[in-house]
TrEMBL record:
Gene3D superfamilies reported for this sequence: Rhodopsin 7-helix transmembrane proteins
Annotated Gene Ontology cellular component terms: plasma membrane
Annotated compartments: Cell membrane; Membrane
Pfam families attached to this UniProt entry: 7tm_4 (PF13853)
Protein name in UniProt: Olfactory receptor
Described purpose of this protein according to its UniProt entry: Putative odorant or sperm cell receptor.
Source species, domain of life: Eukaryota
Domain G-protein coupled receptors family 1 profile: 41-259
Organism whose genome encodes this protein: Ursus americanus
Keywords: Cell membrane, Disulfide bond, G-protein coupled receptor, Membrane, Olfaction, Receptor, Sensory transduction, Transducer, Transmembrane, Transmembrane helix
Keyword Membrane: yes
């Protein structure tokens, strides 16, 4: 019994998206194309920021970092999801499963904090425009991005530490297409109810704090625009709307999957696919393209 506290399960089996072999084969091409577009779109955003001096502003620096995080987050689960569509046995090693959990929470936690940073950038730009260049200088932007990565890493390590030594000794089928913590801990050979609550609380503190900060930031921005601004209201609201859309696309699936009291498997899988494969990548690419087109068009007076 000296290995009672160690895992005796060397691998897990994913149930996948559905039971139909024909449907899985049909989904292979659209999922592959979506992932390819996601990779190209995000890397193009980063490349545009690096090569275009007109985009070297705090807003687009943060946007480029967000695109890179989205690229990493999509790459954690989508390639295996795509290749597993052709397999009958969708197997992942124990180490691979733990790595997926670590990376999903690392990039996901970092993206939450990065969205808060972007909201702060918009707050300074709209509410304190005369002090924007001095407040959001290059050094501060770099520090804010580093903070988002550090918080994401600490969050991911705390999640992994709580499940890494669980005794997995029996069932090993995960009813999903990736290693999602709530589903993985159900396979442990012990009562994990209290542990599940602790894990949800850990994630909930980070997600709730970020979401509240985002709500406060955008509420203050919208109130300020309505009270003090007339001519610039349309442009400011357009910028805020784009960021709010990104926030909703990111937090919407997370809130439904992890906080909704009723668990509907097919709905959870659909939202997980949306979150992992689609996300907010194309909207950010559209914003950069829109910015470049606006700069090329001659001003009309």
């Amino acid at each position: 019994m000296e290995e009672a506290n160690q895992s005796v399960v060397s691998e897990f089996i994913f149930h996948g998206l559905c039971d139909s072999r024909e449907l899985q084969t049909f989904l292979l091409l659209p999922f592959s194309m979506l992932y390819l577009l996601t990779v190209v779109g995000n890397l193009l955003v980063v490349l545009l920021f690096i090569t275009d001096p007109h985009l070297h502003s705090p807003m687009y620096f943060l946007l480029a970092n967000l695109s890179f995080v989205d690229f990493c987050l999509s790459s954690v689960t989508t390639p295996k999801l795509t290749t597993d569509l052709l397999k009958d046995n969708k197997i992942i090693s124990f180490g691979g499963c733990m790595t997926q959990i670590l990376c999903v929470h690392f990039f996901g936690g970092g993206e939450m904090v990065l969205l808060v940073t972007m909201a702060y950038d918009r707050y300074v730009a709209i509410c304190k425009p005369l002090h924007y260049s001095s407040i959001m200088d290059r050094q501060k932007c770099i520090r804010l991005v580093l903070i988002s990565w550090i918080i994401g890493f600490v969050h991911a390590m705390s999640q992994l530490a709580m499940i890494f030594d669980l005794p997995f000794c029996g069932p090993r089928r995960v009813d999903s297409f990736f290693c999602d913590i709530p589903l993985v801990i159900k396979l442990a050979c012990m009562d994990t109810h209290s542990l599940g609550m602790l894990i949800n609380a850990d994630s909930g503190v980070l997600a709730t704090t970020c979401f509240i900060l985002l709500l406060i930031s955008y509420t203050y921005i919208l109130v300020t625009v309505r009270v003090h601004s007339k001519d610039g209201a349309s442009k400011a609201l357009s910028t805020c709307t784009s960021h709010i859309t990104v926030v909703l696309l990111f937090f919407g699936p997370c809130i439904f999957i992890y906080l909704w009291p009723l668990s509907i498997t097919w709905v959870d899988k659909f939202l997980a696919v949306f979150y992992a494969v689609i996300g907010d990548n194309f909207y950010m690419l559209a914003r950069l393209i829109k910015k470049k087109k606006r700069r090329k068009c001659p001003s009309q007076k």
